[in-house]
Amino acid sequence: MAPLASAPALAAASRAGNGSSSSAARFRVPPPLRGGAWLGSAPRQGGGARGGPGTCTAQRPGEPSGVINAEKSEFNEDQATCCQISIRRREIGMKEEQDWMILCANQYLAGYYWALFDGHGGPDAAIIASNYLHYCIKQKLEEVVEGITEAQPPMHLSGCCICPSDPQFVEEKQIQQEDVVIGALENAFQECDEMIGQEMEATNQSGGCTALAALYLQGKLYVANAGDSRAILVRKQSVVPLSSEFTPETERQRIQQLAFLCPKLLADEFTRFEFPRRLKGDDVGQKVLYRDYSMAGWGYKTVEKADLKYPLIHGHGKQTRLLGTLAVSRGLGDHQLKVIDTDIEVKPFLSYIPQVKVFDFASHNIKEDDVLVLATDGLWDILSNEEVAQTVRSFIDKNRTDPYRFSELARCLVHTARGKKNGHQWILDGNSPASYDDISVFVIPLYNRDEDC
Amino acid sequence: MAPLASAPALAAASRAGNGSSSSAARFRVPPPLRGGAWLGSAPRQGGGARGGPGTCTAQRPGEPSGVINAEKSEFNEDQATCCQISIRRREIGMKEEQDWMILCANQYLAGYYWALFDGHGGPDAAIIASNYLHYCIKQKLEEVVEGITEAQPPMHLSGCCICPSDPQFVEEKQIQQEDVVIGALENAFQECDEMIGQEMEATNQSGGCTALAALYLQGKLYVANAGDSRAILVRKQSVVPLSSEFTPETERQRIQQLAFLCPKLLADEFTRFEFPRRLKGDDVGQKVLYRDYSMAGWGYKTVEKADLKYPLIHGHGKQTRLLGTLAVSRGLGDHQLKVIDTDIEVKPFLSYIPQVKVFDFASHNIKEDDVLVLATDGLWDILSNEEVAQTVRSFIDKNRTDPYRFSELARCLVHTARGKKNGHQWILDGNSPASYDDISVFVIPLYNRDEDC
């Protein structure tokens, strides 16, 4: 396959306090991907956690990702993957072992894949996800390949038509190729979550991670997000958000409704209601501001003793926690996670379901300077979309001839959010404190993307 | 209070086939609203169902609504209400019976209210809702009046400050006056739904209705919607949608997830999965297109015998039904509704929760020709937002001096969607069939709205 016109670039920084004693040795290497499917032969495509401190390299699909380690901790809970995904069309009746014999180029659909995983409770789940998710996506796409190569997905994957009106039913539901890709991404997240659960149980590991995955396939960019990472498309005149964040704050009503439907999940230890602050004895009998699952607005309720329990969702902004434990409401892993000193499971309130947004290149005139930025919350806590866009535009403008401008730009964004060391603190230019979270950034040029496939 | 500068206008048409044998006599008159709260003394503020055929009047708050009956049926399942809502500030310790003594004007907050209710299974629920919802809203607003008259809602309704940082907690959560109004509207819908349930049980009535309510209060327009009616703001250069529709199609994932969490609700009679068409024996063993609650996209699943059950959500477009029964997924009433010939209740899948959208007049320069259009699905099935907007603009432009132009415009919109009688059929100008649903339209001029309060 042709080399990439412009290599995407990844930079990452890890922060003290987020490190873990986990090491690569604790991770069971996944089965190698079968022949021909991947550029490069490393079982781990990328993986940003254990690169040497201070290194940063431009990336090509299949090459290990480059990493900036901020030298604040030995390990980084953020992980990254970048690779090309080739989707095979299986011939009916052909055995699995014979797959390598399919060599004809037009039997392949090639896509690009970039993903970021922000681990919590250690990097283990993020490491597994960074090794498995693209494998799950590849598998799920291959399972439905007839649905994404036909102009209209057939009602029956086999192509047979049991009811003569089947094509009409599919058309009436407005089911398109891209819906089948979205479905495959959704199912791949579910499968990856299950694999992480099995893997973690078998190896007695724990923890979870967010997942943000971008897939370029057939002229469209699919961005699947479960967690609080973010993807934006920076263009000359505009910034296009390509993901939404899923946190206990943004998903309050879903989480409260689950507690309403299944109150046993709170084991009488938590209250479902949200209040502006934790209530105390003096509040009993008073009418205070509250929200329940059915409310986008706020009401007043008379405080009862039961309202003094710890709230299911508590805190504000970045400090908001689910069951006093997690800062995200979607992601992979956390199968064994319990609220400290209780038997209350956090997993039922978490969702592995990604939200998938689609950006169709056919209806947008992508220019040379248009780039996709994927980053973990460590960047977005410090820089707004508009600030990132301004940095991107001015950096590209000043470094137009530098072949490594995109990786340098990723490094620049990470360095900006990381700040500078001032004694034992890290501060930003205006002396405000920098983020103490891990920071990972992908900068991906989108121009002439099809020429690479 | 000053008379309205421009009277809002309502027009409605009822269609054959949707009528019911219910009559006004079956409806228990609600307790009269207490003194001073309303302009006009009729216990039913508006109520579009039983006006004489062919009549159409301009409306002022408190006057009975005008109605066009399309002469296709005796009764109209659509109902309408239009009135002014005055919110009293209760003095602490003052008994309810002494409320009428509060006469000082600045102790009132005045708002305007317009609402449409589209009944199903008879007009009974719509009639009760059209009589009660504004009463519930008034009551809920009065309960939290200190939260909507202060610059910032206090943590404690009493205004006392138990924790010195309480104002800061409220500020951190970014709780504003309008959030308390939204909460009051949400709670009012809930209370109205409960009242309908009690009323219907006591009088052995049945049925439900959608509810679309617009409230103008303190310089903001609040549009609360539960069902498939729609509100748009027509401006010179733009159309601003002020509501979203809630149908089994738009709420598929919420409804499927409930069935996943509480499978007993389907009593083994329905399948949770959505397919492009009802499956049959020949499909078993095949891989067919499907969607589950976790999917916005489509996947392929191998059909099992259990998948041949009737789908929880089935059909497409306007024909989509919940449990084979209802075409809407939010609304009031339907407490006794069961799937025909079974004990399966529909109510658990319905939601009384409205979505509330806020339009702040302070940040938009409202012009003389800007109007709010509220209409039931009978209009929107035939005319798009843009078609309605074009009719509105050209009608107002041609009838600038007519003091009844807004009611004439409402009548014009209803007549356009109703079509013309051609033998036993009703057809549109292009000979395509007209809607056979009830059609109700409010046209509400928004300019100088504050001068009326």
Give the structure's gist in a few sentences.
Chain A is α+β, with helices and mostly antiparallel strands.
Give your account of this protein's structure.
Chains A, B: GO terms for molecular function: [pyruvate dehydrogenase (acetyl-transferring)]-phosphatase activity. Chains A, B: Residues 1-63 are annotated as: Disordered. Chains A, B: Residues 91-446 form the PPM-type phosphatase domain. Chains A, B: Residues 45-54 have a biased composition (Gly residues). The structure is a homodimer of 453-residue chains. With 453 residues, chain A is of the alpha+beta class. Among the domains of chain A are: 79-90 and 104-150 and 173-246 and 353-445, PPM-type phosphatase domain (Phosphatase 2c, domain 1), CATH 3.60.40.10; 251-327, no CATH class. In chain A, 22% of the residues lie in helices and 21% in strands. In chain A, the strands form six sheets. In chain A, strands 2, 3, 4, 5, 6, 15 and 16 form a seven-stranded antiparallel β-sheet that branches. In chain A, strands 1-20-17-7-8 form a five-stranded antiparallel β-sheet. In chain A, helix 1 packs antiparallel against helix 4 and helix 7 (385-398) crosses helix 8 (405-418). Mean pLDDT of chain A is 82; it is low at 1-6, 15-72 and 96-106. Chains A and B meet through helix 3, helix 4 and strand 10 of A and helix 3, helix 4 and strand 9 of B.
